[in-house]
Specification:
With 98 residues, this protein is mostly helical. It is built from 4 helices and no strands. It is 91% helix and 0% strand. Helix 1 runs antiparallel to helix 4. The longest helix is centred in the middle third of the chain and has 25 residues.
Length: 98
């Protein structure tokens, strides 16, 4: 059974941050983030096509980057959960239409 892509993407953002924070090794968190992003991109391509995969991959990277300034306003965990939820919702909506 395939894990929904929205879950993979959200787990990559949350898991990447969690691993980086708890291990105090940012590169290890980056590995988790990148691995989940690669899996999600492959699944987006299969289910919704190249254009959607590119757009959603861009949203995934933008969410990662955007979580940093957002964290200064709302805190780290709320920021990560917020951007993860946004990417998951976008993924669900795009794949639902495909």
């Amino acid at each position: 059974m395939k894990v929904p892509t929205s879950v993979v993407a959200a787990a990559g953002l949350v898991g990447g941050y969690g691993v980086a924070r708890w291990t105090k090794k940012r590169p290890l968190g980056g590995v988790v983030l990148a691995a989940a992003g690669a899996v999600a991109a492959r699944q987006w391509k299969e289910s919704a096509g190249n254009g959607a995969a590119a757009a959603l991959s861009g949203a995934y990277v933008a969410a990662f980057a955007g979580s940093h300034p957002l964290a200064k306003k709302v805190g780290a965990w709320p920021s990560v959960f917020g951007v993860a939820g946004a990417v998951a919702l976008a993924s669900w909506a795009v794949e639902r239409r495909a």
